[in-house]
Amino acid sequence: MQCKEGIYMIKVTNVRAAFPEAAGFYINRKKGYGAYTFLHFHNSVEVVTDNRKIVTQPHAVIIYTPEKPQYFKSNEPLIHDWMHFEGDISESVGIEDLPLNTVIYPADYAFITKIIAEIEYEFFSDKAYRGELLQAKLNELFIKIGRELKNSEYCPQDQEWIETFRALRVKMFSSLNEEWSIKRMSESVFLSESRFYFLYKRLFGISPLADLINAKINSAKNMLAFNDKSVEDIAFSLNYNNTTHFIRQFKQYAGITPAKYRKSVLYK
Fold it and tell me: Which sign, positive or negative, has the C-alpha torsion 202, 203, 206, 207?
């Protein structure tokens, strides 16, 4: 089934989910890009916004408008979701209220890569209702990001913990070779385990251990893409004592085994 041209408010022109780049990768578009650009960085990057260079926290999101200058650089192996799209966003559900050309931090980011991957799949398919599904997935993405930003406003009593928890999160993600139990995490911020778990999930929309596993899987993807370490060595470097457990968990979160992921990246 061919969808009629021009009946959708937003049209995706290119998209990639969890796309890897080597350390040092950068984009410097002084005159911007001819379409909207959506970016979700899994790791910290340097970004220039409002003529000011900042270093983001992991899982920052930015939506550039057409022709807006773009600059970002990753000093470590990069994993990011990116998408170009065009059209009239004034009547599109969800995106009209999102801050543009500035870095934002959805409290729950776990859904972003999943939806971008679904958009990527539909973008490259020729199945019936492709256009309708793309529009629906775009709406879902922007609505969920907007909801996360609004939800953070509803809990002002939690604001005092945001920077403390983000700092802990960066520390955890920077030392994935170490053992991070709920006990260690909670003691790092001087909270009981139950209170820590409750606040962490409310602030980030994901449990501490699930968040940690996501970070390990993303780190494993980087290593599989950019070096020739064996799966066993990668598992050991991420504090997995059992390679079988690592492979099983990687497949659960990535939908593919480490060996098949490495092949898929090498032959792209």
Answer: negative
The CATH number given to whatever domain includes residue 104 is: 2.60.120.280
> What pTM does this model have?
0.61
Shared domain check, 136 and 183: no
Confidence class for position 3, pLDDT limits 50, 70, 90: very low
Is residue 225 within 8 Å of residue 77, measured between CB atoms? yes
Same domain, 148 and 167: no
Residue 154's pLDDT is 42
Q: Which residue has the tokens 């930015």?
A: 62
The per-residue pLDDT for range 199-233, each reduced to its tens digit, is 888 888 789 999 999 999 999 998 998 888 999 99
Q: How far is CA 85 from the centre of its chain?
A: 18
| H helix runs in 193-257, sequence order | 193-204, 208-226, 231-237, 243-254
Coil, strand or helix: which one is 18? strand
Asked if residue 43 lies in contact with residue 76, where contact means CB atoms within 8 angstroms, the answer is yes
246: left (phi over 0), alpha (psi -120 to 50) or beta: alpha
Residue 4 lies in a domain: no
Q: Please tell me the distance from the alpha carbon of residue 17 to that of residue 212, in angstroms, as a whole number.
A: 20
- Is residue 165 scored above 70 in pLDDT? yes
**Token pair recorded at residue 118:** 């679904």
Domain that holds residue 22: 10-153
